[in-house]
Fold this sequence. Notes:
The structure holds two protein chains of two kinds.
Chain A: H1 8-26, H2 31-51, E1 58-60, E2 65-67, H3 69-88, H4 90-95, H5 102-119, H6 123-141, H7 148-179, H8 184-190, H9 196-212, H10 222-228, H11 231-254, H12 261-282, H13 289-309, H14 313-338, E3 341-342, E4 345-346, H15 356-359, H16 361-375, H17 381-395, H18 399-425, H19 438-453, H20 459-468
Chain B: H1 2-24, H2 28-48, H3 52-77, H4 95-119, H5 137-145, H6 150-171, H7 183-188, H8 191-194
Helix pairs in contact in B: 1-2, 2-3
Amino acid sequence: MMxxxxxxxxxxxxxxxxxxxxxxxxxxxxxxxxxxLSTIILVILLALVINxxxxxxxxxxxxxxxxxxxxxxMKSLIIMVAIFVMISSFSYVKSLNILKIEYPILILSSxxxxxxxxxxxxxxxxxxxxxxQSLALYVLASFNRDNILSSESGLKYFVLSALSSxxxxxxxxxxxxxxxxxxxxxxxxxxSNIEYGVTFGLVFIIxxxxxxxxxxxxxxxxxxxYQGSPTSVTLFFSALPKAAxxxxxxxxLYIPFVNLIEQWQTILIFISLASMLFGAIAAIxxxxxxxxxxxxxxxxxxxxxxxxxxxTNQGIQSSVTYISIYLVMTLAFFSCLFMLRxxxxxxxxxxxxxxxSSNHPILSISLLIVLFSLAGIPPLAGFFxxxxxFMAVIEQSMYFLAIVGLLSTVVAAFYYLRLIKIIYFDDPKxxxxxxxxxxxKVTLAISTGILALYFIYPGILNELVxxxxxx
Amino acid sequence: MIAHAVFFYLFSFIAIVSAIxxxxxxxxxxxxxxxxxxxxxxxxxxxxxxxxxxxxxxxxVYVGAxxxxxxxxVMMLNVAQQKNQWFGSAKSSSHxxxxxxxxxxxxxxxxxxxxxxxxxxxLLNSSxxxxxxxxxxxxxxxxxxxxxxxxxxxxxxxxxLVAMIGAIVLTFREREGLKRQSYIKQISRERKEGVQIxxxxxxxxxxxxx
Lengths: 471, 210
């Protein structure tokens, strides 16, 4: 008998998805009920996942599914952020008239896909998890189907993602062909750096994964998709899939391809450099806040990959810390974005922020904290995230990467500071509504609180991360 | 053995002729029917060499789903009457040379594959695979699919479920003002709901001057 209790969270989530579907189909007007139930299900799921914490590395299903502390940490992080995504975007979803029973169900199935991806120790199961996750995201991107931008973003995401999945599969088949196994652990023992086929496959797999986390030069879908999708969906896929894909990146680079470090290190350094520079420079001319955050997330992924490129334990730890803080920053930024509402129309242009401070001092302060944190200014959480990355990079004496990273931080600080200038020093442009949904206020308070007060005890995340990642 | 050969040549002949007729038929609906005939005879060939699972899947998937879908498309696009001019037309079509080139390349690739298999038998080393003569293909597939790969099977099921939900969400529109017949409502209707007796007072109606 297998250890079925180890995959109990996944089984619970699948059954919950199907029962929610039944409730939604057979009970009339149950949209709100299904939405609230799925939030409760996520809370239960979080408890179930955390319950598994601090077990030894265990494999189930013929060593194709791995439960270790890294996967449990990333799963709980993703579920925690997903709970806040659900409660903060409820009012937005409702006022955009896209509150259907399928909306929370698709979000849950996407989370199921991410959980499978994170735990995968096998090429096939990794691919299936990835497809489950992204198939739900394509539908969510075009969920507001009467809006032409939303439909366009869904179609664009679908076509480009299918292309990258093709490349990924080609890479997987090459790796399978040359190493003789789909299992990560077996690939690590059979593949050595003499075999060019495995190296080829590795390159294709990195391309596919870089597409999923929108790193340069595979970023072209991100700005359009971010802008066109409903903002609640943009929040969802600017945060969660990136954390899942980054975990898979760690798994791929440090389990099956750990012998090929000379080959992938150069590629990762290039992707990281290009993403940092492009994210910093291309965001300057943007007028839409969602497009801006798309470019900003491209840049942030560059920093996270810089940690991975070092090839050390410390580098991976700094990457995981970075992605955790990035998720909190994204959550806080989008909570602010949900608050720019006037007569149930949501504003997302930069000029709409003009003079926000005179009418909405509290919202402006939180936006100030978020933007300073995104720019990496001490003593906010974003500074610590970048600090650990640069420390890991410099320790490996990769000075060029560190210098370019620091320079692009300076360039990126320009547009974050410009937003703050617009908020505080431009002419006010009228009031927004202030009667916000309770969950939205709570999300904003908690996320900005974490960002602002992280410096009091920065070791808390570090100690946790250094305990879970031992390679 | 003779019967085997007879059936093999019969099905192969039907398969080749119907494959030619798919491209040569003037009516597109006829082309689709020849395609179905082709699929059926090829699945018979599969069953004859003992690959009964492949043959049945071919029948279910290709004949039952794909070919019917083709028929729907042909009927919906109304291209049935379009005369195609691949063969026997005075104007030579411009895509015949390209088609010939592609088919020659495929032909040479086939020759290379078959030649390698014939003259270098250890090129494709399949002798290590133990093929049991007692269990059928379906049994042995089921043996691994529901044991070693059960989780992959279940996840694929979830993917298909999500795909179905997605297709419904993106295309289904509830029509306004649709009047549906409800048997329960009709049967449970009573006299007092449907009939209203109005006491009409006499001499209070419309007055008509005579």
